[in-house]
Design brief:
Strand order of the largest sheet: 5-4-3-6-7
Order of helices and strands: EEHEHEHEHHEHHHHHHHHEHHHHHHH
Shape: globular
CATH superfamily of the largest domain: HUPs
Distance between the termini: 30 Å
CATH topology of the largest domain: Rossmann fold
Helix content: 40-55%
CATH class of the largest domain: Alpha Beta
Number of helices: 20
Structural class: alpha/beta
Strand content: 5-15%
Number of strands: 7
Length: 429
């Protein structure tokens, strides 16, 4: 059933009609002042509507723009608890910023450790079970653990999902501007070669966004076409590794592009490359990945997540804002939402903060907490992956990664979730 659609059945069969979809056309707001004056009253009404419940409600508060906007707006009329995931890895932890937001909001604040520690392997197996093998988003583990703890206090939680896609939060929007220009001058083979060299250079880095990894991802995406690079940056396993990983059973689909629909959305007419990227994310990346993740991980614990920024009133408003109010060519992203936070007297540190995302230190986890689980699926029991994947190639990649000769974290992660899923299927038979 496609989003925003009605399906009708009668004696002659069925037909599907789409009555709504997010669009970026018909710009009505070009200045920050007029956009803010239109946004704030509507936004406060939306948040109040989202608070209607006969069960306890809370807010998932990170140190970011979107959840801070939700928390400070909620605090004007409601006293609800805020919940923040805490990481031992400092480059991923945002509890300091979240605490500053809670202090200004005057709301109770709960820190939830989501590292899982020695129980990480069993937690990951539960995550894969609840996904039924459909998603391999690395942020699923902390969201699963966060949802588990939050559900002990409340039944409904508001989150900031959707802010990046509708208000221009991704750095890839700026990168897409660059790719649209640079791609015309850089041949695809050159970009691919640069991407592979940079990939090798990131062997020992375990930080959030190593420079070599960023260069590699940018170049490899550019090799797929300057107007389609935005979609290619979502790929976890690089193109140059697929031929070695795919097994016999994958041959019939090896030539199919899993991003073909994504790229069709990118090809839809729009005023700029950023408009195209935002429309594509709103119609493909958001519903097909992020919302599926949020729904599966929260409902695994019977926690209802509500997303005020994806209220249709908000989405329609964002579609009428000039792109420079959302993702300007220069300066901070989410310009409009940052301006809204100033009205709510948010901490300056949050307003100035660059986007981090709800990610995990994946490379390090595979070499430490998940090493035994990975060893089992990548080495001892890798033959289970056949005929879908090549066990020998998976073993090689794992050996290189485990001994820090390469950083194959984003290649190995979907392979690990696939291996766990295959094991679970076998145990059910």
């Amino acid at each position: 059933m496609p989003p925003g659609s009605v399906m009708r059945f009668d004696a002659s069969g069925s037909c599907t009609t789409q009555f709504w979809r997010p669009r970026r056309n018909g710009v009505a707001f070009r200045t920050e002042a007029e956009a803010i004056e239109a946004f704030l009253p509507m936004w406060e009404e939306v948040v109040d509507d989202q608070m209607i419940a006969d069960v306890p409600v809370g807010v998932l508060q990170s140190g970011g723009i979107d959840s801070t906007l939700v928390s400070l707006t909620t605090a004007k009329h409601h006293r609800v608890p805020l919940f923040t995931a805490s990481f031992s890895e400092k480059s991923h932890d945002e509890t300091g910023l979240a605490g500053a937001v809670a202090a200004i909001a005057g709301l109770p604040h709960h820190l939830v450790p989501v590292d899982a520690g020695d129980g990480l392997a069993s937690t990951l197996e539960k995550v894969v079970h609840h996904y039924d093998g459909q998603i391999c988003d690395e942020s699923s583990v902390p969201l699963y653990l966060l949802s588990q703890k939050v559900r002990q206090k409340v039944t409904v939680a508001l989150s900031g999902d959707g802010g990046d896609e509708f208000f221009g939060g991704y750095v890839t929007y700026r990168a897409s501007r660059i790719a649209a220009v640079a791609g015309a001058a850089i041949p695809a083979p050159v970009a691919a070669a640069v991407g592979r060299v940079a990939y090798s250079a990131a062997a020992t880095s375990e930080g959030r966004m190593p420079v070599a990894s960023l260069v590699s991802r940018f170049a490899l995406g550019l090799a797929g076409g300057r107007l389609h690079a935005h979609a290619r940056w979502r790929r976890m396993i690089p193109d140059f590794q697929l031929g070695g990983i795919y097994g016999e059973a994958m041959c019939p689909v090896a030539t199919q592009d899993p991003f073909a629909e994504y790229e069709r959305f990118l090809d839809e007419p729009a005023d700029s490359i950023v408009d195209r990227c935002m429309q594509a994310d709103q119609q493909f990346y958001l519903p097909g990945g992020l919302l599926m993740k949020s729904d599966a991980m929260s409902m695994a614990h019977s926690l209802e997540l509500r997303v005020p920024l994806l209220d249709r009133r908000v989405m329609d408003f964002a579609g009428k804002c000039a792109v420079d109010l959302l993702a300007p060519a220069l300066g901070p992203t989410k310009r409009l939402l940052r301006a809204a936070l100033r009205r709510y007297k948010a901490p300056d540190a949050v307003i100035r903060e660059k986007k981090k995302g709800f990610s995990t230190p994946l490379a390090r986890m595979l070499r430490t907490n998940l090493a035994d689980l990975a060893e089992r699926h990548f080495s001892k029991e890798a033959d289970r992956l056949a005929p879908y994947l090549q066990p020998a190639e998976v073993r090689r990649l794992w050996t290189e990664h485990r001994h820090a000769k390469a950083n194959h974290a984003y290649t190995l992660w979907p392979v690990l979730t696939f291996g766990i899923w295959l094991q679970q299927l076998a145990e059910q038979r």
